[in-house]
Amino acid sequence: MKVWTAEQLRDFLAGITEHRMYPTIYLAASTGMRRGEVLGIRWEDIDLDGLRLSVRNSVLNVAYAIEISEVKTDTSRRTVDLEPRTVGVLKAWRRTQLEERVALGIRPADDSLVFADPDGTPIHPDLYSQTFDRLVAAADVPRIRLHDLRHTHATILLKEGVPAKVVSERLGHANVAFTMSVYQFILPGMQADAAHIFSNTVFGESQDIS
User: Fold this and answer.
1) What is the pLDDT of residue 210?
2) How many Cβ atoms are within 10 Å of 39's Cβ, its own excluded?
3) What gap in Å lies between CA 159 and CA 166, rounded to an integer?
């Protein structure tokens, strides 16, 4: 598993703001959603004012064909909280999409996919991954896969002290134990941080008393 630091993620996103796939990649990075879940989001699934979205569907590659289906498990079917920056990206993308649809004579609808070709055709998951790979190759960042944005999201949150249960819920994992088994490689550093936090909280700034 390879992940980016917060700085690497920020630098990468800053370099692709003009690319058509930027909103899809930004949403994946800021929520930890799976590839198919990002592509399966419809406008009716997003509450822009309430700063949240509901994960209900996924776009899949079945025998090289696109298939849209409901997510498979109860934990995958979830609500993900957003923050104002992500909502701003989505609002800007919606304006662009509306302009494209109007130009093509297509009537916008709430059940339209958030991310699709101008005519509303779903984006093929493999095209999404391949585009991400090309953008990464052209950027000054370590090579990672599209799915590793999900891991990057989780590791950044865990390292910043976000409870594992919250991270597990955002990712749609079956349980917290599974989440920690996936990201156990960061536990040693978290244990050390916990020791310092306890000492600083109880006794003040850590000092060598030997």
Assistant:
1) 52
2) 27
3) 13
160, two tokens: 């910043």
In angstroms, the CA 78 to CA 172 distance is 7
Looking up residue 89, the CATH number of its domain turns out to be 1.10.443.10
- Helical (H) or strand (E) element with 79: strand 78-81
**How many domains does the chain fold into?**
1
User: pTM for this one?
Assistant: 0.90
Coil, strand or helix at 190: helix
- Tell me, yes or no, whether 210 lies in a domain: no
Compute the distance between CA of residue 168 and CA of residue 174 in angstroms, rounded to an integer: 8
| 8 A C-beta contact, residue 52 and residue 80 | yes
Condensed to tens digits (0 to 9), the pLDDT of residues 68-98 reads: 999 989 999 999 999 999 999 999 999 999 9
Structural domain for 179, as ranges: 6-203
Q: Which of 11, 24, 14 is CA-nearest to residue 93? A: 24
Q: What is the DSSP letter of 73?
A: S
**Chain centroid, CA 133 distance in Å:** 16
- Interatomic CA distance for residues 64 and 206, integer angstroms: 58
